[in-house]
Design goal:
- The chain is of the alpha/beta class and about 290 residues long.
- It is built from eight helices and nine strands.
- Helix 1 crosses helix 2.
């Protein structure tokens, strides 16, 4: 992400083995049994927060997760992996807005409905599912560093808003653009009421990724442009909210997507930056993009 170094905040308590599985998915490793891995045992500070053990690893967090996998003492113990960097030493944290593909439970949004039903007034909106793990971890991190900034990224809108009725794959239906804008506003308001102001938000994690096995939602640049300028931007104005909006949120090799957003003055006035991933393309694209090439 080009505006600030960001670290992903794990959404739930995980065991050492589950942490290792999450790392495999993040590294895009093929589906196969975990192989033995025994790095030197790293050091870590173990802290207590409301009866939960917080593990703050020193050094490389990936090695730390691999060590948890290989050490029988931790393989099935609940730990909260805050990040590779202690929260008092970092400035920006990433939050999944609803379920990401790393959670331990069924995927969820903040307004799930039975198949075939909708909720245009968002009467069922609730962040209650985040109270078990997510909110306590965020608040623990705030204790260590009260100046932490948070940016949020949705993996998918609620399934009832989408073309396939599911959080996995599909697209946001245009007739639900307004409802989705109000949904995002409600999230910002709910977290603010918890004492967690959202500094910035992307519109979609990896909008050119579609997968039937976990939450994804396909967007093109023109759709994101129209959603920002006609729905989300005005909804934020009406609610008197002003988080930074970062468009795109995917790889270096598709700069035409954010260009489509930023070429529109009506959309660009709401956008403060572009979020990039490094899985495909090269970092030089950011410089070319900034120079308008």
């Amino acid at each position: 992400r080009h505006l600030a170094p960001a670290l992903f905040l794990e959404r739930a308590a995980v065991t050492g083995l589950e942490a290792a599985n999450a790392i495999r998915r993040a590294e895009r490793l093929p589906e196969q049994p975990l192989q033995p891995y025994t790095p030197p045992e790293p050091t870590a500070r173990a802290l207590q927060w409301q009866g939960t053990r917080l593990m703050l690893p020193d050094g490389d967090g990936l090695d730390f997760c691999r060590w948890l996998r290989g050490d029988a003492r931790w393989r099935h113990q609940p730990v909260l992996m805050l990040s590779a960097q202690p929260p008092e030493e970092s400035s920006v944290r990433s939050l999944g807005l609803g379920a990401s593909d790393f959670i331990r439970e069924p995927y969820y949004s903040y307004d799930d409905m039975p198949p075939g039903e909708t909720d245009l007034p968002l009467a069922h909106f609730s962040i209650e599912k985040d109270r078990a793990y997510v909110l306590p971890v965020i608040k623990a991190a705030q204790v260590f560093n009260p100046d932490l900034l948070f940016f949020a990224s949705p993996w998918s809108p609620p399934g009832w808003m989408k073309t396939n009725g599911s959080m996995n794959s599909g697209k946001l239906r245009p007739e639900f653009f307004d409802a989705y804008a109000r949904y995002l506003v409600k999230y910002l308001q709910a977290y603010q009421a918890e004492g967690i102001p959202i500094h910035a938000m992307t519109l979609q994690n990896e909008p050119q990724m579609i997968d039937k096995h976990y939450p994804t939602c396909l967007w093109n640049g023109e759709e994101q442009r129209d959603f920002i300028r006609a729905n989300l931007g005005p909804a934020l104005d009406a609610a008197k909210l002003s988080p930074q909006l970062w468009c795109w949120d995917h790889n270096w090799n598709q700069p035409e997507f954010p260009r489509a957003v930023l070429k529109s003055p009506e959309a660009a006035r709401y956008v403060q930056g572009t979020a990039w991933h490094f899985y495909e393309g090269s970092v030089e694209e950011q410089s070319r993009f900034r120079l308008g090439r």
